[in-house]
Amino acid sequence: MLSSKLVPCVRTITNLTPRLVPLSSSASSLLLDSYCETNIQDLVYSKNRELDILIKCGRINTAYELFDKMPLRDVVSFNLLISGYRKQGASEKGLFVYWELVSQGFRENPSTFSSVLGICSDAGLLVEGIQAQCRVLKLGLSSNLFIGSALVGFYMRLGQYDLAICLFDELPRRNLGVWNLVLSGHSRLGEFDELSGFYRQMKLDGVEANGLTFSYLMRGCCNEKFLSEGKQLHCHVIKVGLVESNVFVANVLVDFYSACSCLSDARKSFEAIQMGDARDVLLGRQIHCCVLKVGFDCRSVHVQSALVDMYGKCKDIESSVSVYKSIPERNLECCNSLMTSLLHAGIVEDVVEMFGLMVDEGIGLDEVTLSTTLEALSESSLASLASCSLVHSCAIKSGFETDIAVSCSLIDSYLRSGDVKLSQQVFDQIPSPNVICFTSMIKGFARNGMGNECLKMFDTMIQNGLSPDRVTFMCVLTGCSHSGLVEEGRLIFNSMEATFGISPDREHFSCMVDLLGRAGLLNEAEELLQKALRGGDCVMWGSLLRSCRIHRNEIIGRRAAEALLEINPKHSAVYLQISNFFAEIGQFEASMQIREVAMAKKITAEIGCSLLR
Question: What pLDDT band is residue 21 in, cutting at 50, 70 and 90?
Fold first, then answer.
């Protein structure tokens, strides 16, 4: 028999006394005076825990039903729902709950305003955010650092930089978090002079910078005219040891040098990142030794599970398995840690076998077990419709069929198996599907070449008040590309920034170049590619060159070939692709010359078909 649902719930009780208000005449008839104050608070706290659990399980509609039936609520009850709706991208519902809170006479706390302003910034609701600020002023909370930081972040994200700076200047004190918000906003504008001015002011205030601070400063230098300033920053972060210890700084260095066309330095910065895993596992082993010394290896299952997980994430799967085998009594948490470790290592067949072992030994299942198994099945040679259905049955029996993570994994598994109908059934049973659920369906439709269905699902998502993210747009554009929906893809791409405030990144540009190239719109594809971040990359130019081969466009194809050689002059696949292009358009002599150059430089692996085909 499968164990009951295990949902972790850790919560800290604040010292504040919550305000409790009866919500109906029937509720007011309760003999509240027969209970002491502590019991009343315990009752509300208990209900709030139930709300928290439901929201974490993705059952936001059920949570609201429970909330609606609660005879007593406090501000935490409202905050949980507002935050839950924000995570699901349901801005209108979140704001409705907030207006309920205000209308029923509750006083907001800093967490309330943080969630409400987060909703407003996510959905681009400037007016509603200003109304929330009016409430802050009315309640006399404008000097609260937590709320002030949320307001600065809100105005920064909506492009109201002057308003954000005015609020920032009025804060009685400013911590590292709010300084980083200001630096982040100006880094998006590429205003390095402003950035450096704020950084100097930050140092004068005695605030110590962290890796995120330097990441924003480096992003402000992503222009060739600030190359010297960026190199000075690079020297500084090396001096303070952030390149080795902070992955954000290491990654932004690659972006900086790429943007400044210093490709050799970008490559060196990228290669330096590859040493991170080895250092991490060394630190992990040192902590493991401390665990052994104090005897936690036998006494704490949480520590053992964390060790299994740590070694797995550091790609030391042998140590992960070794720790797991040393655990005297294996429970659900330990098994889940090993399953995710095996999945990260790509040993998917063992994940499926582990699932069977857990069922046979009665260890139990939870949402992590089910979603991990489904993901492994999606990548495994053992994957079949029957195996997906078996895991689906286990999810239903254990009560996790409506869990967001499990539902999305089921949708993906069924769509990979080609069963669109079953995936649609799973989606339809989700009480309140969020952005991830919709994106999973759109991704599946795109994979199966169902571009029109992608667009319909995208429209439904917008009508439900959800805001698409970068991944959603990527999946919709892929569906349009695979189905040849040029006009629709163009409209979706243009709406990203104009309607939703999301700047297209290189993956979105690459997908559009592919879509236009497949349709033979090579001039438009080339123009778009040149507008892309840093003028495109190997993937984009390679896609354009393939389209030029198909449509036999020699002029644009030659330009694409030149761009590819400039970006990556040492990769054999680039030469082979260019050689094949010239052969395809009848330029056999040029094709042979390119192959000879490749051989002379000893950069070609095998003379044959291109690796990029």
Answer: very low
- Count of beta carbons in the 10 Å neighbourhood of residue 168: 22
Could you tell me which of 435, 463, 437, 501 has the C-alpha nearest to residue 123? 501
Q: Tens digit of pLDDT for each residue in 562-610?
A: 888 887 776 667 777 787 788 877 778 777 877 776 666 544 333 333 3
CA dihedral sign of residues 119, 123, 129, 131: negative
Residues 6+ apart with CB under 8 A from 191: 220
Q: Considering the entire predicted model, what is its pTM?
A: 0.53
Q: What are phi and psi of 72, to 5 degrees?
A: -130, 140
Q: What are phi and psi of 57, to 5 degrees?
A: -85, 0
Say if CB 500 and CB 463 are below 8 A apart. Answer: no
Collapse the DSSP code of 73 into the 3-class scheme (helix H, G, I; strand E, B; otherwise coil) and give the result: strand
Question: Taken in order 326, 332, 336, 339, is the CA torsion positive or negative?
Answer: positive
Residues 6+ apart with CB under 8 A from 505: 470, 533
- Listed in sequence order, the DSSP H helices in 220-363 are 227-239, 242-245, 247-259, 263-273, 276-294, 296-299, 301-313, 317-326, 332-344, 348-360
Question: How far are the Cα atoms of 27, 43, 154 from residue 71, in angstroms, in the given order?
Answer: 5, 10, 34
Q: Are 448 and 415 in contact, with CB atoms under 8 Å apart?
A: yes
Which has the closest alpha carbon to 285: 255, 251, 310? 310
Which tens digit of pLDDT belongs to each residue from 260-277?
A: 888 888 888 887 775 575
Which one is predicted more confidently, 248 or 440?
440
% of residues, the chain, pLDDT over 70:
87
Pair type for strands 21-22 and 72-73: antiparallel
Contacts 24+ apart (CB under 8 A), 299-302: 301/327, 301/329, 301/331, 301/333, 301/334, 302/333
Q: What angle do CA 175, 179, 180 make, to 5 degrees?
A: 115
Measuring CA to CA, how many Å separate 438 from each of 46, 54, 441, 476?
32, 20, 5, 11
Asked if pLDDT for residue 382 goes beyond 80, the answer is no
CA–centroid distance for 553 within its chain: 39
Q: Which of 256, 247, 249 is nearest to 275 (CA)?
A: 247
Supply 221's token pair: 């230098």
Residue 7 has pLDDT above 50, yes or no: no
CB 355 within 8 Å of CB 348:
no
